[in-house]
């Protein structure tokens, strides 16, 4: 993103892909009972990826961009670039992949078809990191479509009729969006060549917008509509609540790490690094995007209020929270941009915590409805604490992560001269409180239901309330939620990195 | 070296076919051995020729048979387009040969080998011939081989075979009339020589139209497609693969070569015909896709998918028309699509063959549980479907990208819409198949999953190998596309 | 209309008649015969073209010969298939 950055040709971006691609492909060929080998491969890949990110972050922040390019078709290249923004997203996905892998290994213990599951699981992260590292729109599209394809078997994993129906809806929506993205990318590439992502927008695209504003607007709209499906912008969000039939680790992946994030990441890349914010504003598209995001924020929160199914409530909450990112990306203000980028990271860790906890309630006690959770905190206090921390974060209470990203968004709204943003954020925060506080209240305060199975049945005596492989990831991400808020001033905190990235968008 | 091998590409398999025919029917193993040896040698020869084309100046290897130059002699010429088709034919040919060698049931019995080797020779001939009448003769040879192979199918396959024969011969007669018209105009049968000697006029227009209709019938272009969904599923599994992946392409290549050589001279009439081809192609994409969605038998679904893909290939004519960048993109995209479709379709039909052998039926209802018992075969179906739909990371994506670029470049939005819609339909029917074979685990009212019969491991692995080839080749698509684009034809005037 | 054009038109007419008969006929043997008529039309066109110059054109005549041989082969294959189609069910199995 940094225009003064030195570009190094390097294989590191490719290695980052291989750390999950190779284990994924090997895992497909393992027998079901080769648990140890499969676990080792999974963990080795996940740890290696996190380590690579840790190595690259200081280099990239210091201005050394790592780039790898491959000729593909005549005149178009596949480009992988590790710049600040791509590493930011890659760091999020590889970190959360690590904890989700631990969680998934515990969650699926003894379940059938684990080789298939973990194979696609690894491919899913490969595609996500590919999206993060994509250096141009073609490469982005390549991995974006691949992500759709490899998550489909994960959503359908249980093989029940409901799972297959949900997966079909998911596929129909995301591939429909994919077709639009494909059209937009081909269109733009034919007109201006294969433009690489450039902080502040590509010069060739700016020229196009100046010469043929109608065409540029059409391309921008097609791209936004396509990306809006995965970013779950109203009215393209319907697949997201339906895809809740997936196993909990997959929901975590969909909601926090991979699919929806690919959508908003794509929107930010297109708006900031292809068109450039000012060009996008001049075309009148920025306002369209901001309004769509504002509507989605309120709509998602309202729908979440009425859901009794915990995962559904969380799903609508995702719809709403994602549009915070879109909204921030659509405001002409550096503070808002930084807030939006930070929210990509913070929403990820908070939402994954919530899904981990939902999975814990479902796995350990068999509870999936909000109304069934009365008094559960007595039986599972640690899980309840993790849930509470993340939910408070979502509402935006200081000193948690959610506050660090929401506050700049509100300031940015004022800064950009769009005071209505403040109203949207306030409404949404109230609604957030309205749908999360009752859950917390139910968990901690209400007495257990008479005759609930988990009360009458004496549970096996264990040292802790749930299997460690499920509980520990939730606690880790809950702790991160706290840490990202408290240590937001640290040099390498998501907030600080996001500020560096955001500066690039305002040359 | 590679020039010397060009005649061998045609004569070698032909001679081997004759040898296989002499071997008594009871000695099926010997026939298979002859077939496999030929396949290996052919693959080697093809590799040399393709290498020769890639390195030759102008990407062209040429040989005048027995030293006789036109107009008296016959010239064989392998260019970038031939190279793409040779690559495809080699991969599919080896896969089919291996499949039938491990289980001769898949090919319909010992009569398979002579017919298939003869067909293989004729296909190679079609790819490298420069002579119009030669093309006609070789196409008839392809037809005879293909029809006879269809007739090897179990059950009542003679009817579909006869129907196929009728359509193919009518197509050939129309093409022969077109050749006569060109010969009357140009006084030569050599395609590139004729290109310079024809003038715009009703004769040339008629020749182009006759070729479009004639080859359209042979390759099942909508609305002349109705024989294909009957004939292809009736054939033995390995034969269906050959028919959809290769035989359809023979007519296509002849159409493209004829068009590229002669259409630019025809002026406005060629534009009208190109649009007609585009309309037929778009209709094929939509109709084939919708029909595929409605089928309940796997082989019928795959056959209708071929109707769709032929529609894509027909779109190449209007996409090439504007010339320049669009023609380069459309031409290379078209050839990439030929390869991508061939690999995917062969993988699908061979996979269907494995499932049919294992479950005794290709009705989707009977294939429940195949996902559990035959995961690699289902994976082959899935990956092949992804490539057909033109999604990454497959060769089909590269092809579709080029075609879309051609359409956008020249502002031909209708064809772009057809390309995009076709992709969605393809995903649709692939998903129907995958859903059917995965069988809902909670469907209590259904009978328990039928246990599959044993199938040789090699046969079950071949479809996946082809599907993986479609993924691996996507990485190499640039080389192939570059080679092809360098020799792209000019557009219509 | 010159004699040449008349003959060309005749060839085309025979082709069309043959094709129409082929498409309309239901009996399979009739359809095969109609196909042969159609091919005769194309052969007439080629033969007429061979007479255009002052000397007969050997190339066109060679084409006709080859065409006739091919058509004969195809007719053979078609008739064999017709027999199998029209054979009673039990005879069909090879």
Structural class of chain B: mainly alpha
- CATH structural class of chain C: Mainly Alpha
Secondary structure tally: strands of chain B? 2
Helix content of chain B: over 70%
Quaternary state reads heterotrimer
Number of helices of chain C: 4
Question: Beta-sheet strand percentage of chain C?
Answer: under 5%
Q: Largest chain-chain contact?
A: A-B, 33 and 33 residues
Helix content of chain C: over 70%
Report strand % of chain B. Answer: under 5%
Give the end-to-end Cα distance of chain B, rounded to a whole number of Å.
Answer: 38 Å
The largest β sheet of chain B comes out as: 2 strands, antiparallel
- Average of pLDDT of chain B: 89
Any idea how many domains of chain C? 1
- Determine the mean pLDDT of chain C: 88
**Span from first to last CA of chain C?**
55 Å
Describe this structure in words.
Chain A: InterPro entries: CPA3_Na-H_Antiporter_D, ND/Mrp_TM. Chain A: This is Monovalent cation/H+ antiporter subunit D family protein. Chain A: Pfam families: Proton_antipo_M (PF00361). The complex is a heterotrimer of chains A (about 500), B (about 500) and C (about 90). Chain A has a domain at about 310-505. Chain A contains 22 helices and three strands. Chain A has helices at about 10-30, 35-60, 85-105, 115-135, 135-155, 160-190, 205-210, 215-230, 240, 250-255, 260-275, 275-280, 285-305, 310-330, 335-365, 375-380, 380-395, 400-415, 420-445, 455, 470-485, 495-505, and strands at about 5-10, 65-75, 75-80. Chain A is globular and about 75 Å long. The model of chain A has no long low-confidence stretch (mean pLDDT about 90). With about 500 residues, chain B is mostly helical. Chain B has a domain at about 280-495. In chain B, α2 runs antiparallel to α3, α4 (about 110-130) packs antiparallel against α5 (about 130-150) and α10 (about 235-260) packs parallel to α12. In chain B, about 70% of the residues are buried. By secondary structure, chain C is mostly helical. Chain C contains four helices and no strands. Chains in contact: A-B, B-C. At the A-B interface, β2, α5 and α6 of A face α16, α17 and α18 of B.
């Amino acid at each position: 993103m940094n225009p003064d950055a030195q570009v190094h040709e390097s294989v590191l971006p490719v290695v980052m892909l291989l750390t999950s691609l190779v284990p994924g492909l090997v895992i497909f060929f393992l027998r079901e009972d080769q648990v140890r080998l499969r676990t080792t491969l999974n963990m080795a890949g996940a740890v290696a990826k996190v380590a690579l990110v840790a190595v690259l972050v200081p280099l990239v922040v210091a201005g050394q961009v790592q780039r790898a390019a491959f000729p593909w078709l005549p005149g178009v290249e596949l480009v992988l670039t590790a710049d600040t923004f791509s590493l930011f997203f890659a760091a999020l996905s590889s970190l959360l992949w690590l904890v989700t892998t631990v969680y998934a290994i515990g969650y699926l213990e003894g379940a059938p078809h684990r080789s298939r599951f973990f194979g696609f699981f690894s491919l899913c992260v490969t595609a996500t990191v590919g999206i993060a590292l994509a250096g141009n729109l073609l490469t982005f599209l390549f991995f974006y479509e691949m992500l759709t394809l490899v998550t489909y078997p994960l959503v359908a994993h249980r093989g029940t009729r409901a799972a297959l129906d949900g997966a079909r809806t998911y596929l129909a929506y995301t591939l429909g969006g994919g077709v639009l993205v494909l059209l937009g990318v081909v269109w733009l590439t034919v007109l201006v060549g294969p433009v690489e992502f450039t902080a502040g927008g590509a010069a060739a695209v700016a020229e196009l917008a100046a010469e043929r504003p109608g065409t540029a607007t059409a391309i921008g709209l097609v791209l936004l509509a396509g990306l809006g499906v995965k970013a779950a912008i109203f009215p393209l969000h319907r697949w997201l609540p339906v895809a809740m039939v997936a196993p909990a680790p997959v929901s975590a992946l969909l909601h926090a790490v991979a699919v929806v994030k690919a959508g908003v990441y794509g929107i930010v890349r297109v708006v900031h690094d292809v068109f450039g914010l000012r060009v996008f504003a001049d075309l009148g598209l920025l306002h369209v995007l901001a309004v769509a995001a504002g509507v989605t924020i309120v709509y998602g929160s309202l729908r979440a209020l009425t859901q009794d199914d915990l995962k559904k409530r969380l799903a609508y909450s995702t719809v709403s929270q994602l549009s915070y990112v879109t909204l921030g990306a659509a405001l002409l203000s550096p503070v808002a941009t930084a807030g939006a980028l930070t929210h990509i990271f913070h929403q990820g860790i908070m939402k994954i915590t919530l899904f981990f906890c939902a999975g814990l309630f479902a796995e350990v006690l068999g509870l999936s409805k909000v109304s069934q959770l009365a008094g559960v905190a007595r039986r599972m206090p640690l899980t309840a604490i993790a849930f509470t921390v993340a939910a408070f974060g979502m509402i935006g209470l200081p000193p948690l992560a959610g506050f660090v990203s929401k506050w700049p968004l509100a300031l940015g709204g004022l800064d950009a001269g769009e005071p209505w943003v403040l109203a949207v954020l306030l409404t949404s925060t109230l609604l957030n409180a309205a749908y999360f506080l009752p859950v917390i209240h139910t968990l901690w305060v209400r007495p257990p239901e008479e005759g609930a199975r988990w009360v009458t049945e004496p549970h096996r005596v264990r040292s802790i309330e749930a299997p460690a492989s499920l509980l520990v990831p939730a606690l880790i991400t809950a702790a991160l939620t706290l840490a990202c808020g408290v240590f937001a001033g640290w040099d390498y905190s998501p907030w600080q990195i996001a500020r560096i990235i955001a500066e690039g968008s305002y040359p | 070296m590679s020039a010397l091998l060009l005649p061998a590409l045609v004569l070698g398999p032909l001679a081997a076919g004759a040898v296989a025919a002499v071997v008594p029917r009871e000695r099926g193993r010997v026939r298979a051995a002859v077939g496999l040896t030929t396949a290996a040698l052919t693959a080697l020869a093809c590799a040399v020729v393709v290498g020769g084309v890639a390195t030759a100046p102008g990407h062209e290897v040429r040989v005048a048979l027995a030293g006789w130059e036109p107009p008296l002699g016959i010239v064989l010429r392998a260019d970038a387009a031939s190279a793409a088709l040779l690559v495809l034919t080699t991969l599919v040919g080896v896969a089919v040969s291996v499949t039938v060698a491990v289980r001769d049931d898949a090919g319909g019995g010992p009569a398979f080998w002579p017919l298939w080797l003869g067909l293989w020779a004729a296909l190679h001939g079609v790819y490298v011939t420069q002579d119009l009448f030669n093309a006609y003769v070789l196409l008839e040879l392809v037809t005879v081989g293909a029809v006879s192979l269809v007739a090897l199918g179990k059950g009542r396959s003679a009817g579909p075979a006869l129907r196929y024969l009728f359509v193919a011969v009518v197509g050939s007669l129309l093409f022969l009339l077109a050749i006569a018209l060109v010969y009357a105009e140009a006084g030569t049968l050599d395609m590139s020589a004729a290109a310079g000697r024809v003038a715009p006029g009703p004769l040339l227009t008629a020749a182009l139209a006759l070729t479009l209709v004639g080859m359209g019938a042979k390759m099942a272009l909508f609305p002349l497609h109705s024989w294909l969904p009957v004939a292809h599923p009736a054939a033995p599994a390995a034969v269906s693969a050959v028919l959809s992946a290769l035989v359809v392409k023979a007519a296509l290549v002849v159409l493209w070569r004829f068009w590229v050589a002669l259409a630019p001279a025809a002026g406005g009439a060629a534009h009208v015909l190109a649009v007609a081809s585009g309309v037929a192609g778009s209709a094929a994409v939509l109709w084939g896709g919708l029909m595929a969605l409605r089928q309940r038998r796997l082989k019928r679904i795959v056959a209708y998918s071929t109707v769709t893909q032929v529609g894509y290939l027909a779109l190449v004519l209007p996409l090439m028309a504007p010339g320049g960048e669009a023609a380069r993109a459309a031409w290379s995209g078209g050839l990439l699509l030929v390869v991508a479709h061939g690999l995917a379709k062969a993988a699908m039909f061979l996979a269907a063959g494995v499932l049919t052998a294992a479950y005794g039926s290709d009705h989707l209802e009977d294939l429940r549980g195949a996902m559990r018992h035959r995961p690699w075969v289902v994976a082959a179906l899935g990956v092949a479907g992804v490539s057909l739909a033109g999604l990454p990371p497959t060769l089909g994506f590269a092809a579709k990208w080029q075609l879309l670029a051609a359409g956008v470049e020249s502002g031909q939005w209708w064809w772009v819409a057809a390309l995009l819609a076709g992709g969605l339909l393809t995903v649709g029917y692939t998903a129907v198949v995958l859903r059917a074979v995965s069988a809902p685990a909670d469907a209590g009212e259904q009978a328990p999953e039928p246990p599959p019969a044993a199938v040789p491991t090699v046969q079950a692995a071949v479809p996946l190998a082809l599907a993986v080839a479609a993924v691996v080749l996507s990485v190499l698509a640039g080389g192939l596309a570059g080679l092809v684009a360098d020799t792209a034809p000019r557009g219509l005037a | 209309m010159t004699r040449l054009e008349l003959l060309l038109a005749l060839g085309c007419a025979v082709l069309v008649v043959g094709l129409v008969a082929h498409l309309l006929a239901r009996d399979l043997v009739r359809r095969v015969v109609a196909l042969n008529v159609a091919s005769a039309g194309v052969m007439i066109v080629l033969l007429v073209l061979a007479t255009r110059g002052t000397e007969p054109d050997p190339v066109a005549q060679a084409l006709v010969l080859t065409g006739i041989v091919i058509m004969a082969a195809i007719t053979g294959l078609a008739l064999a298939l017709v027999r199998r189609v029209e054979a009673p069910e039990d005879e069909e199995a090879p």
